Amino acid sequence: MSKDTLTITDNSTGNEVEYPLLKGTLGNPTVDVRALKNDLGYFTFDPGFVSTASCKSAITYIDGEQGILLYRGYPIEELAENCSFLEVAYLLIHGELPNEQELNHFKFEIDDRTVLHESLRVFFDGFHYDAHPMAMMVGVVGSLSAFYHSDLDISDPDNRYICATRMIAKIPAIAAACYRHSIGAPFVYPRVDLDYCENFLNMMFSRPEKRFIEQARSIDETAVKALNLLFILHADHEQNASTSTVRLAGSTGANPYACIAAGIAALWGPAHGGANEAVLSMLKEIGTVERIPEYIAKAKDKDDPFRLMGFGHRVYKNFDPRATIIRQTCHEVLRQSCQPDPLFDLAMALEEYALQDDYFIEKKLYPNVDFYSGIIYKALGIPVDMFTVMFTIARTAGWVAHWLEMPGDAGNVIGRPRQLYVGPSQREVMPLHRR
């Protein structure tokens, strides 16, 4: 048997078939089982696709055992320390970090496509004032295809790129408009003299420093720095539920705005993009610092329905590298915030308790990025129902990068998962029901 193949033996027939082992740049070898049905008459059963590679991608790599996250080969720690979100977005799309000229041109493209069509702004009047921002995001983003007909020839690489940059440009404006609509405030137009994160904060709050003590300019920079960092950390995360949704929709040839709207809908789920909101709900349930030991005990009890949200991660078995990066910034934001909140003190006390508890240390249940991101967003004055919208802004860069990558994959075909049918076998309609 070749070292680059895996032999599967059908014990019922004795048939043996060899399947290729595909080896990527990093990670476990992958068995190519596309011919399994024809060779042996079987499908594979993998709920949640936890052991199935659905595509080839050169964008992001995760090693959950070692706590490694790479964007195009660059460690997330180095990107977070040295780059802006727009530089990271450029990297995800183009595969390389931009030089100064490339970055300036990319920023020009984003700025040029940020303004919302005036007719699109009218769409918001159709939403009730208390509509969930994610509901508005799904509807408005999907409607973009009605405004940009000329770009929908996605067989043209130039059109695909324009669509991708338009999404990165308009998502913050749409997100801010959702918030302004919910509070009955007039929309704020984007400003090309501000960078990406400052521009978003300005469209949200009219000026970035509104939520902070205004006597020190450095505090404004803390807010922008925190937002830039969170956007970088959330920009992409391999084939998660929403990215897979974008790819599945994209495999049908659907227009890019519909694909991104589908991704937004998938992200809306509380098991995906709503995790940081769940952290704040948990903190409210705990209530006070004095009750932390009680709830830690409940979290350890397998028979208790209470779950400690924001600790551990499905992918990262050791630690979440994004949480290590954002922890310091979280503490900086809380020090600068002019909104004293008992939840902040409770969160920091819970963090300290868990980091010193033998059970959490042994199980490697460390705070993850969702634990800190929710706290930061609350300190920045972002409403809780906007938390997943913030995630959407960041993740759009990853979504469009994956959407752009798909045509270059020779194995890219329309998505069609199989199933294990467990319904009734074939049966006949009884005489009573015949016509």
Report a brief summary of the structure.
The protein has 435 residues and is mainly α. It has helices at residues 36-40, 76-82, 85-94, 100-112, 118-123, 133-143, 157-182, 196-205, 217-233, 241-250, 256-267, 275-286, 292-300, 321-336, 342-356, 358-363, 369-379, 387-405, and strands spanning 5-9, 16-22, 30-31, 60-63, 68-71, 74-75.
Features:
3-stranded antiparallel beta sheet, Citrate Synthase, domain 1, mainly alpha, 2 domains, Rubrerythrin, domain 2, 435 residues
Q: Can you walk me through this structure?
A:
The chain is globular and about 70 Å long. The chain folds into 2 domains: 5-53, Rubrerythrin, domain 2 (Single Sheet); 80-409, Citrate Synthase, domain 1. It is mainly alpha-helical and 435 residues long. Helix 6 (133-143) packs antiparallel against helix 7 and helix 7 (157-182) packs antiparallel against helix 18 (387-405). It has a 3-stranded antiparallel β-sheet with strand order 1-2-3. Strands 4-5-6 form a 3-stranded antiparallel β-sheet. Strand 1 and strand 2 (16-22) form a beta hairpin. Residues 208-219 have low confidence and may be disordered. It is built from 18 helices and 6 strands.
